[in-house]
């Protein structure tokens, strides 16, 4: 059976004009519409053989069709039946692949929820739900990111936001008065009104960032975020903070700490992490405020779109192929019932 490498070898032998024609054809709506969403997910999920999306076993056989013609499968190990979209973010969708592709293009271009809804012909509530379905699935890929080489780490802070319509919520109670005017926080410096987001980047375009707690980062927080995700042959470059000393000692990682105001020490500096923080803040400002409930999703979104070194086409393919086919479900009620401030345990 021909492989992707075989196809790439053939494409490499085409003329520039032929490659451009192929690119136009592959990206055309007509080509995308030739695959429905089930066919696309099946192609991605079953690329290496059939696998049960519920238990992960490979003893899967066909099991008839639903009334709408959708192929059903049954797993001989767990005994459960499923369709190809089971346990995916497109489970239950009534839109074809071209709409999801257009939605991902809107995300790549940073369009607002309302503009995305108009462009894709869907309701704004659906557009909001799709955004977080996609970002939830993208979290699965972010969990596998590991950093090596020279790694720069530092923290940034975001004011806690309870943005959203809570009028129909049965579980949420506003813990403070709304900040209707003036500053977003009423206490200067670090406080219980800001969440801490430790961030780490290497020089190959990989990054990790996640909410930990309010106030200054602790060694326990660093273990929660970075344990198993920084290789032992790496060098961590930070500012002068004792939490990193204890963390690196426990994990056998080399540590270089720079004094406040000192930009570099030989080949070591924290310019990449400072640049990352600046880009992250610009990215967040584009949304005119992000609810803390969903902040982790936006962190992952920024990491892929703005920091990763892949081309725009490669990033788009990650959204389309990995996100739509990965094992992940997200329901509307699950989104609304998330903790308002998702701190580490």
UniProtKB/TrEMBL annotation:
Residues 146-303 form the ISXO2-like transposase domain. Pfam families: DDE_Tnp_IS1595, Zn_ribbon_IS1595. InterPro entries: Tnp_ISXO2-like, Transposase_27_IS1, Transposase_Zn_ribbon. This is IS1595-like element ISSag10 family transposase. It comes from Lactobacillus crispatus.
